[in-house]
Amino acid sequence: MPEGHRATAIYFRHLLLIRVEIENIVNTLAICRHTFYISSLSLPCNLNKLIIMENLQSNLFYSLAGVAAVASLASCTNKQKTTEQKPLNIVYIMTDDHTAQMMSCYDTRYMETPNLDRIAADGVRFTQSFVANSLSGPSRACMITGKHSCANKFYDNTTCVFDSSQQTFPKLLQKVGYQTALVGKWHLESLPSGFNYWQIVPGQGDYYNPAFITQDNDTIQKHGYITNLITDDAIDWMENKRDPEKPFCLLIHHKAIHRNWMADTCNLALYEDKTFPLPDNFFDDYEGRPAAAAQEMSIVKDMDMIYDLKMLRPNEKSRLRSLYERFLGRMDEGQRAAWDKFYAPIIDDFYKQNLTGKELANWKFQRYMRDYMKTVKSLDDNVGRVLDYLKEKGLLDNTLVVYTSDQGFYMGEHGWFDKRFMYEESMRTPLIMRLPKGFDRRGDITEMVQNIDYAPTFLELAGAEIPADIHGVSLLPLLKGEHPKDWRKSLYYHFYEYPAEHMVKRHYGVRTERYKLIHFYNDINWWELYDMQADPSEMHNLYGEAEYEPVVKELKDELLKLQEQYNDPVRFSPERDKE
Q1: Which of 154, 168, 265, 317 is most deeply buried (CB count within 10 A of its CB)?
Q2: Cα separation, 447 vs 57, whole angstroms
Q3: What are the backbone dihedrals phi and psi of residue 51, each rounded to the nearest 5 degrees, phi first?
Q4: Dihedrals phi, psi of 374, to nearest 5 degrees
């Protein structure tokens, strides 16, 4: 037999050997019930060449072509089966008030966070990650809906209740077969919906022996430290309460590192030997920034000696003393003994020194930094517990692990603690992701992203449709290593909660790669412009300077465009602005 015919026969026998499998696939695809068009299918290239070379009879051609076409489908189907991954799991860890500078994968000046670093090392670190409204409840509403506050209607922590009937990404994940769970802080006033399982802390929650609200709307109390307990619940759900045959999305949302930064007793002695330099603008005079001058979040003036800094002694008065005593009252005998043993000598030494002025300011700053870092330490340890569990159970390669905070936080910049302002330290938030198998991207992602992007990212990752009314954009192209040319060039921000705690005035603004334009409104009409390259600390308001008029015009046009795009009813009027 000529060599070409022999090859053809071998190929034909090979096709016959897989006939049974092909017939099964044919039945499945119902090909036998439809007219079979050869022209619409791709034959194996070597078979095409053999047929052409040997000039086979037409009946043999069509016989081979038909079988080969089905074989090609079989091959494609089998290949798809072998290469298709199971749906990816999502573990979304969010903390409260965690500034990126207190993560060693972002900043090595202060403390080591080895477990957070594990996430960044096995994935990506976003260097320009921001929130849309720097306040716990509103930020969480933006995250879970993928929409700005003007659309999800949760504007502030004082007057709003989240409408739980609205569209959220956990509900949409459920529709495509995901199990969803939430443990820890919810902070949206209404009870959670869209979760197969949830257990949340009421309000802010307590650091020691906290209460939890269950799915039955019962309140239970657990013994221990809150960061450990939330992690216990998360691991227990993964181990005992989910269907291992279904993909899952687990939200682990911690109370920490929220004010008043109460460390676990095992970490109380940490960092006491460290002294930290004051930020360069700690004694900011707020020149050209009247809204910044009007705030009540100063470490020097507003940080409470008892509630925040734990300097409790008999007859010492403070505005928040009773709240701190309530926190202490939750401790058991052993916890309270360890707490008092640690703080007693610090309290005695502080009152003996009788510090004033800049010495007192520096003492408060050092105490604040240490307490904050001790609370971070527990978070890092518990992130390690989650990563270790996923690794032990063989889930890491099939799970996206996300770590972020609901917003940033001031660590003495401008003399402040807290957040709220559109200034960089509170608007910017950490975002790191450990990527599942199949995603090769590593290192830094420098495109501007926002917390409204999390929802569409999770939906696309799960294969769910992204609703058209979502404001955010999926980060999946960035995770795949792409650099979309049409990626956003600006971000919108809007803070509403005023008058309220810390007295930060209402404001909205636009941020681009280089500039930030802010408008304070309501009981004030004040604009601020910052060049983020030349003035990253935002100390020099450039608004009103003639040379920046073209920049201001361009930014105001962009601001109005974003307000119209997101249908924010509170927006500036170019006509009124000229008055």
Answers
A1: 154
A2: 60
A3: -65, -45
A4: -65, -35
- Return the half-sphere exposure (C-beta side, CA atoms, 13 A cut-off) of residue 119: 32
Q: What are phi and psi of 94, to 5 degrees?
A: -130, 130
For the chain, first and last CA: distance in Å? Answer: 96
Domains and CATH numbers, the chain: 3-83 (no CATH), 89-262+364-577 (3.40.720.10)
d(C-alpha 522, C-alpha 507), whole Å: 8
- Cα(138)–Cα(159) distance, rounded to whole angstroms? 11
pLDDT of residue 297: 99
Can you tell me the distance from the alpha carbon of 368 to that of 373, in angstroms, rounded to the nearest whole number? 9
29: enclosing H helix or E strand: helix 19-29
Cα–Cα dist 104/106, whole Å: 5
3 state DSSP class of 340: helix
Q: How many other C-beta atoms lie within 10 A of the C-beta of residue 394?
A: 9
Closest residue by Cα to residue 481 from 513, 432, 438: 438
Rounded CA-CA distance 372/367 in Å is 9
Give me the half-sphere count of Cα atoms (radius 13 Å) on the Cβ side of residue 547: 3
Indicate the pTM of the whole model. Answer: 0.85
Q: What is the pLDDT averaged over residues 523-541?
A: 98
Q: What is the pLDDT of residues 553-567, one digit of tens each?
A: 999 999 999 999 999
Residue tagged 């696309």 (tokens):
460
Dihedral sign from CA coordinates of 143, 405, 266, 325: negative
Q: What is the pLDDT of residue 361?
A: 99
- CB contact set of 277 (below 8 Å; sequence gap of 6+): none
* Distance of alpha carbon 190 from alpha carbon 18, whole angstroms: 59
Mean pLDDT for 309-325 is 96
Mean pLDDT of the chain: 89
Whether 287 and 299 have beta carbons less than 8 Å apart is answered as: no
C-alpha to C-alpha distance for 328 and 340, rounded to whole angstroms: 10
DSSP assignment string, 392-418: HTT-GGGEEEEEEESS---SSGGGB-S
